[in-house]
Amino acid sequence: MPRSTNKVASRARRKKVLKLAKGSFGRRKNVLTVAKNSVEKGLTHAYDGRRLKKRDFRALWIQRINAAARVNGMSYSTFMNKLKKANIALDRKALAEIAYADAEAFKAIVQKIK
Predict the structure, then answer these.
(1) Secondary structure class of 26 (helix, strand, coil)
(2) How far apart are alpha carbons 81 and 77 in whole angstroms?
(3) Which long-range contacts (CB under 8 A, 24 or more apart) does 69-75 make?
(4) What global pTM score does this model have?
(5) Four-residue CA torsion sign, 10, 15, 21, 25
(6) pLDDT tens for the 114 residues of the chain, in order
(7) C-alpha distance from residue 24 to each of 14, 18, 88 (Å)
(8) How far is CA 15 from the centre of its chain?
(9) What is the DSSP string of the chain?
(10) Which element (helix H / strand E) includes 74?
(11) Which of 28, 64, 76, 108 has the fewest CB atoms within 10 Å distance of its CB?
């Protein structure tokens, strides 16, 4: 009895990888084995990047809050400590937006916690 192969599924699998490799340079876009390695590495970097993005944004928020707090005569750590003691529940993202967009509102927050 002849060996049967599932040509449809095999082709679909290859097409899926080559579709993900679209836009790559040279053999990475049209040679399956090279494309597979490239796509796998790219997906790994994408996964890592989604986690790094969170770190980077948190660091940016902290820098913005620190800069605004220092303009108002307070360090970041002191500001965050007093904010917590005053039971003001604003997260770093919101505080950074206030510090960046509305300096007067941030100054009012600092006056409230002093």
Answers:
(1) helix
(2) 6
(3) 69/99, 69/110, 71/103, 72/106, 72/107, 72/110, 74/110, 74/114
(4) 0.77
(5) positive
(6) 788 888 899 999 999 999 999 999 999 999 999 999 999 999 999 999 999 999 999 999 999 999 999 999 999 999 999 999 999 899 999 999 999 999 999 999 999 998
(7) 16, 10, 49
(8) 29
(9) -PPP--HHHHHHHHHHHHHHTTT--GGGGT-HHHHHHHHHHHHHHHHHHHHHHHHHHHHHHHHHHHHHHHHTT--HHHHHHHHHHTT----HHHHHHHHHH-HHHHHHHHHHH-
(10) none
(11) 108
Question: What's at 78, amino acid-wise?
Answer: T
Q: Which residues contact 71 (CB under 8 A, 6 or more apart)?
A: 103
Q: How many CA atoms lie within 13 A of 104 on its CB side?
A: 0
Q: Which domains does the chain have, with CATH numbers?
A: 9-113 (1.10.1900.20)
Beta-carbon count within 10 A of 68 CB: 22
Structure tokens, 74: 């307070």
User: What span, in angstroms and rounded, lies between the C-alpha atoms of 73 and 69?
Assistant: 6
